[in-house]
Amino acid sequence: EADIYQTPRYLVIGTGKKITLECSQTMGHDKMYWYQQDPGMELHLIHYSYGVNSTEKGDLSSESTVSRIRTEHFPLTLESARPSHTSQYLCASGTTREAFFGQGTRLTVV
Amino acid sequence: QQQVKQSPQSLIVQKGGISIINCAYENTAFDYFPWYQQFPGKGPALLIAIRPDVSEKKEGRFTISFNKSAKQFSLHIMDSQPGDSATYFCAATSGSRLTFGEGTQLTVNP
Predict the structure, then answer these.
(1) Distance CA A77, CA A4 (A)
(2) Which of B34, B89, B101 has the CB atom closest to A98's CB atom?
(3) What is the pLDDT of residues A35-82, one digit of tens each?
(4) Which of A54, B77, B95, B110 is the most exposed place for a label (fewest CB within 10 A)?
């Protein structure tokens, strides 16, 4: 079973601040993903990576950016947070057949 | 464009009853169909999955039925329990892309 960690679990931050959401996995998966989800709602893919130095935008347009310098690490950055960015952000890693999700970061921008 | 359509959006079942969630897909390139279960405050977790060359898969109280010609698949939860109350997502994979349905909030009343 994959171990995937997201920090922080909760973040309340002011408008205009730069934030980075951390995601790390210990299973050596090449594939990693970021999803945005409002409570109990759809999962929207915003970024994905198939390996080091490989990143792609997902189906939902997002002002965030990602990087993949190491296999185990896939951070997401918002240069200037806005209230419209308030949501839950879920990181996942996996194989072709299965995705393993972290517990998510609940972001609130005030 | 929603490639995997899921219904119903919400479902209330009495303890001991059968919960049925349906999904339909459009992309014939999908080659694996997992279901994920998500509890509040947690990331989704793989529940059960099926390949398109199989018409039914059963694991305990959970069964997937798959109809390739109709491009539909469904999750049946037998003897539903209050602990099954969660959001359920069907999904479909093509290569490394995982496409989710909109989700179904299941409530099992005692």
Answers:
(1) 18
(2) B34
(3) 999 876 889 999 999 999 999 998 888 889 999 999 999 999 999 999
(4) B110
- Residue A48: list chain B partners with CB under 8 A: 96-97
Residue whose entry in the numeric block shows the structure tokens 């965030």: A64
Q: A9 near A104, Cβ under 8 Å?
A: yes
Tokens of B93: 């994979």
Quick one: tokens of A37? 């989800």
A45 → chain B, closest CA residue: B99
Structure tokens at B58: 């059963």
B83 or A98: which leads in pLDDT: B83
Token pair 């594939």 is found at A31
Which tokens is B2 given? Answer: 């929603």
Determine which of A23, A89, A98, A100 to mutate to test the interface with B (most B C-beta atoms within 10 Å).
A98
Residue A86 CB neighbour total at 10 angstroms:
15
DSSP state of B100: E
Q: Judge: B93–A97 Cβ closer than 8 Å, yes or no.
A: yes
